[in-house]
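Milestone M4 deliverable, item 7.
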Amino acid sequence: MSSATMTAPLGKAGADEGRIGLRANLRHIGALVRRNALQIKQDPESMFDVLLMPVIFILLFTYVFGGAIAGKDNQQEYIQRLVPGMMAMMGMNIAMAVGTGVNEDFRKGVMDRFRTMPIARSSVLIAKIVVEIGRMLVATAILLGMGFLLGLEIRGGIVEFIGAIVLSTVFGAALMWIFILLGLAVKTPQAVQGMAMVVLMPLQFGSSIFAPPTSMPGWLEGFTKVNPVSNLADAARALVNGEGAVAHPTLVTLGWAVAITAVTMPLAVRKFRTKT
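Output delivered:
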């Protein structure tokens, strides 16, 4: 397709975007969500990470590292610590897949076709986020199911338990905008995965998910305390177990989620419009 042919539709779409109303925008998002969901139905292998990752991780950290971290006699308490913290980890790993998917869609030309349509640019990306939130909730449900099989207890009440899931989902959705922006900025899915791992590994393992910060060297303990993933893990743990501070880590987590979305969402939409 020639550049002249592409320019005309893109210009029209850009002009129409500002006049798209809320109802039309929601209708477009719904149609794109259905399209993305049908893709998953046609390619069920794309759900392997969601179905298997929670099982592998919880078994690995419980039985390989749990005894060394908490001791063999404290496995039950370690489950109570580990599972709420890993809810944060699920969101981060699913978020990484969003960036890879967006990058692949651009390489296949799918996104170029969307950009020729008179729809809001944000609707394409929001639809991606909605579907990935669904995948995140499936992964979280499997994680919690495994946790219950291993002895996890809801000690803080059902409302607080649901609150922990919602908080993890909100933070995970905010992270998706970072990885969408990354997927739009780099050239290959492999580059997205490589750069994402460089970011995710320190955030996940330099946090309070797996071990208490007091057991770490001073410099790492300091990083852990300012790590937003630690605040999410602490908040989810306090909500599920019914003990510990809830308000401060929850507000800090929500603050991070709002700030990340406010900064990266406009940048991602802008990059989506201009990417060549």
